[in-house]
TrEMBL record:
Top-level taxon of the source organism: Bacteria
GO MF term set: DNA binding
Record Pfam families: DUF5753 (PF19054), HTH_31 (PF13560)
Protein's recorded name: Helix-turn-helix protein
Organism whose genome encodes this protein: Saccharomonospora marina XMU15
Listed InterPro entries: Cro/C1-type_HTH, DUF5753, Lambda_DNA-bd_dom_sf
All residue ranges annotated as the HTH cro/C1-type domain in the record: 17-71
Xref: Gene3D superfamilies: lambda repressor-like DNA-binding domains
Length: 287
């Protein structure tokens, strides 16, 4: 079953439930037997893979003897948050994309590297549509409209969110994306013009990794780094390729990817130079 709700509250619940069980000295099997639930269900809860039900969380709180404590209050709050309806809940999308949207919607900062395309959160609708038409020939017109609408909806996080500040977006885009024609010259002209305009927003840092940059590690792989403010919410890396989407959570691996992205950012043109290059390409190729 695909769980399409918020990911961060489930991760917090999983962390606390695992900590409480380990501190109690009980095994998964012992706790599951006590509560008359399956071991696999408890394991899913402790790995943020299941949708936590209020009754299960209540029973675990009682079993671990933390009723009335701050920990219990947090667990109840997170359980309620995990049930919250999200805008993509009723969309026909994959589990991987659902997870990606959840991380993106709850992160404070997203660091992206793309090749050879414009970052999704800065794509025009026509650019996205042309990209799907070229890369997903099996999709129906209705499906493409749905996917384009999802991409446009995701961009709202850059303008504002109900309970959080606008998403801070740090994007490095390979220079090849400026020359890779998606759709037509008209589509590219509109896309590059919007990049210039939107990159001036205070929460958007758009930079181009030029052809003159050295062949840095990860510069041939599109990925995102999702950053969270709370220490409990460890950062996550999302890699995207032809095999699909993969999310990495191992702390050491995630730490390395932060260094990889910082290196890409360091070797990129600064923001003013990036806009100057986009203007030059726009005038030379798409005017």
């Amino acid at each position: 079953m695909t769980v399409q709700g918020p990911v961060v509250p489930r991760r917090r619940i999983a962390h606390e439930l695992r900590r409480l069980r380990e501190e109690s000295g009980h095994t998964l099997e012992e706790v599951a037997a006590e509560l008359m639930i399956s071991t696999s269900k408890l394991s899913r809860l402790e790995n943020a893979q299941g949708n936590p039900r209020p009754r299960d969380v209540r029973d675990l709180i009682r079993l671990y003897g933390v009723e009335g404590t701050g920990v219990a209050e947090k667990l109840h709050h997170w359980t309620k948050a995990a049930q919250r309806d999200v805008w993509w809940s009723h969309r026909d999308i994959s589990k991987q994309l659902s997870t990606r949207l959840a991380y993106e919607s709850e992160a404070t900062t997203v660091r992206i590297y793309t090749i050879p395309m414009v970052p999704v959160l800065l794509q025009t609708a026509d650019y996205s549509r042309a990209f799907y038409l070229a890369n997903e020939p099996s999709l129906t017109a209705r499906q493409i409209d749905e996917y384009v609408d999802i991409r446009q909806h995701r961009q709202k996080a850059l303008r504002g969110r109900e309970t959080m500040p606008p998403l801070e977006f740090i994007a490095v885009m390979h220079e090849s994306a400026l020359y890779q024609i998606v759709g037509s010259n008209a589509v590219m002209r509109d896309q590059l013009s919007q990049l210039i305009e939107r990159s001036t927003a205070p929460n958007i840092d758009l930079r181009v990794l030029p052809f003159s940059a050295p062949p840095l590690f990860t510069n041939s792989c599109t990925y995102g780094y999702y950053e969270f403010d709370e220490p409990l919410d460890h950062d996550v890396v999302g890699i995207e390729n032809h095999a699909g989407m993969q999310h990495l959570e191992d702390p050491q691996t995630v730490k390395r990817y932060r260094g990889y992205h910082d290196n890409l950012h360091r070797h990129s043109l600064n923001q003013d130079e990036t806009r100057q290059l986009i203007r030059a390409v726009l005038a030379e190729r798409y005017s």
